[in-house]
Specification:
7 helices; Ubiquitin-like (UB roll); 5-stranded mixed sheet; single chain; Rossmann fold; binds FE2/S2 (inorganic) cluster; 323 residues; Elongation Factor Tu (Ef-tu), domain 3
Length: 323
């Protein structure tokens, strides 16, 4: 089920330790050809190992076509993707990736951009900052990390011409330099678009603060890296009905909808299998999904007309799917 669509073969041209537990990888086309173009906020799917695909944001200049750069945090809490990148992928290796996809684009109508990065969430934010700097756009960036030695790309940012627009915030630093989310987001700002990427707790804190302060939803942009969407003891069996054929497939409590459909010979394209990428989105014609994704906005979830069958389940006995 997990696959890299429209696979591209790339070679690892360099692998660099950027900070504690963070490596960057420079990927070039296997035969030296130009790579597909991308925009700030884009990611690629990387086939880390057989049956294991992960999404990584591109963090080089979108004007470059000779390489993609990604950075990976070694995360012992994940299902092996980051460890695979750190331990198995070496310089000279050939790797299959997807073309760039962008679920986190810059809003062209923004008068000002407020970029908030937590930890490894800096990757798309860095690309955005560099793009905004090139175009002369107005922006402000805050980069929060546990400590200076866990701050990937510190010197690249501090040595850039947009450095005056960036503030670093270290958890182990003096209180006065810590990022005051509530203070900074206290007032919605007309024309300012907020972009946040990082650990779930950081994104949740930023979004809940912004929403409580009245920031309009269209001005809030976010991208999660991973979700905690494993099976839960409260998961129940339910049915899905395929609208085109009327066929009914039972989803046992220990399988996802995607798994149950695959067992019935019905393929749904997936990528992250964690409810963060949106690849598997399927329209729901009847029934009430139990949303477990981090992809949709609260309003989109409340509409109950689509869901992510890689992880979401059902509150009703049956879901009718537009398949
Ligand atoms: Fe990524 Fe379902 S496969 S959201």
């Amino acid at each position: 089920m997990t696959n890299v669509t429209a696979g591209l073969q790339v070679r690892v041209a360099s692998k660099t330790v950027e900070a504690i537990d963070i490596c960057s990888f420079e990927l070039v086309e296997a035969h030296g050809k130009p790579l597909p173009s991308f925009s700030a906020g884009s990611h690629i799917d990387v086939n880390v190992a057989e049956g294991l695909t992960r999404q990584y944001s591109l963090c080089n200049d979108p004007a470059e076509s000779h390489r993609y750069q990604i950075a990976v945090l070694r995360d012992p809490a994940t299902r092996g993707g980051s460890a695979g990148m750190h331990d198995r992928i070496q310089v000279g290796d050939l790797v299959t990736i997807s073309g760039p996809k962008n679920h986190f684009p810059l809003a062209h109508e923004a008068r000002r951009s407020l970029l908030l990065a937590g930890g490894i969430g800096v990757t798309p934010i860095l690309c955005m900052a560099e793009r905004l700097a090139v175009t002369g756009a107005d922006f402000e960036m805050h980069y929060c990390t546990r400590s200076r030695d866990r701050t990937a790309f510190h010197d690249r940012i501090a040595g850039s011409r947009y450095a005056p627009r960036v503030q670093f915030h270290f958890d182990d630093g003096p209180q006065a330099q810590k990022f005051d989310i509530a203070g900074r987001l206290a007032q919605p700002e007309a024309g300012t678009h907020l972009y946040v990427c990082g650990p779930k707790g950081f994104i949740d804190a930023v979004l809940s603060t912004a929403r409580a302060a009245g920031w309009p939803e269209p001005q809030l942009h976010y991208e999660f890296f991973s979700a905690d969407v494993g099976p839960s003891a409260s998961d129940e069996s339910f049915e899905v009905q395929i609208a085109s054929s009327g066929r009914i497939v039972v989803v046992p409590k220990d399988q996802t909808v995607v798994q149950a459909l695959a067992a019935a010979g019905i393929e749904v394209q997936t990528s992250c299998e964690q409810g963060v990428c949106g690849t598997c989105i399927t329209r729901v014609l009847e029934g009430e999904p139990d949303h477990k994704d981090l992809y949709f906005t609260p309003q989109e979830q409340a509409a109950n007309d689509q869901f992510t069958p890689c992880c979401s389940r059902s509150k009703s006995k049956r879901l009718v799917l537009d398949l």
